[in-house]
Amino acid sequence: MCQQENSERIYQQEGLTLRIRHRHKMASLLRVELPKPQRPNHIWSMDFTKDELGDGRKFKVLPILDKYTRKRFRIEVNTSINGVKVCRILSEISQQEGLPEIIIINNGPECIGKVLDIWAYQRRGIRLFFITPASRWRTLILRVLTADCGMNA
């Protein structure tokens, strides 16, 4: 007899009621359909993955590809890839391939920082499209609020 059945039996013998806990479904947050690529260099995508070597050292992998042609521009592998390095990699690729209109990325710390925002929006007019937009909206709202208060985000 399993423990759950045993505890149910004891509760019934003692006249107690079982507290059944139901999981509450969370309402889905803002869902936005991903844009569809129309031509080469229209939309690029990049997404970090992490793994561990046999000796326990961790590393990151950053593939960057064109969504229309499925061309893989680069796969960066390193133990540390920050926002500055992401911008440097994208700049190197853009010298040979040109620039996209949109880059689809995740909400990793490398992607939501100010460095990538400045590189993409202000200097090159590239729109960043985040895979999980709800977290991105929270980040943007926080930046606006802290900027209004004169604080640095």
Describe the structure.
The protein has 153 residues and is α/β, with parallel strands linked by helices. The chain has a domain at 43-148: Nucleotidyltransferase, domain 5 (2-Layer Sandwich), CATH 3.30.420.10. It is 35% helix and 21% strand. The chain has four helices and six strands, in the order αββββαβαβα. It has helices at 3-14, 83-97, 114-124, 133-148, and strands at 43-46, 49-52, 58-66, 72-78, 102-105, 127-130. Strands 1, 2, 3, 4, 5 and 6 form a six-stranded mixed sheet that branches. The model is unreliable at 148-153 (pLDDT under 50).
Kindly summarize this structure in a few lines:
β3 and β4 (72-78) form a beta hairpin.
